[in-house]
Automatic annotation (TrEMBL):
InterPro entries: CAT-like_dom_sf, Cmp_AcTrfase. This is Chloramphenicol acetyltransferase. It comes from the Bacteria. NCBIfam families: CatA_like_2.
Amino acid sequence: MAKKIDPKQTKRAMAFELWMDAPNPMVTFFKILDVTPLIKINKKRKLKFNMLLDYCIGKAASGVKEFYILPVGHELVQYDSIAVNTIVKNKEGEVSSCDILFTEDLAKFNQDYLRYTMQVADSCENRDLTDSMVIGTSAIIDTEIDGAVGMNSGIYNNPFIIWGRYKKKLFRYYLTISFQFHHTQMDGAHAGKFLANLQNEINGLQVIYGDKTYGTIHDGKCNEQQII
């Protein structure tokens, strides 16, 4: 559910005054993540790497209350749920957008991820969840990147995460991500907390879920962008 709120009645009142009309209110942080636990689960359980990372993103964001308030136009909107967006290569060879509602149940999140990315790939129609605060993601799987800065459109103010291929160093795997956010939504400390949460969720995922099985993973015509 989404509802408009009075910025003056929130802790983001000053940020709203300072940044809503700024020429460039978007801030980008870069972070190198150790994604070794995700690689191990991917290989052992055949769960998609991008799905696992999207799950960790949703879990990390759910622990930072600033993610639930987003500047939309010139208003603040409060949400009671978070979704993670993924880019899907559709049957026409183009890309479509697919929002997945975050749930702490990894089996359910995986089921929804597979179902809706396949649905979007087949229909070539975007799946938008307008009642949730959506975290955008984009996987640039064709190359290793050292960073990327998102577009400041003035329309899409949602937080956005970009990554490329992971890199292997000795026995560990590392992934560089960029995290873009609107300064009205959060400050650097909140973004830093989210990124720390993200690494912690990745580290803890194998401990919690590494020995569980989540059923058959569809490998049919769903062409979700997956890091290999």
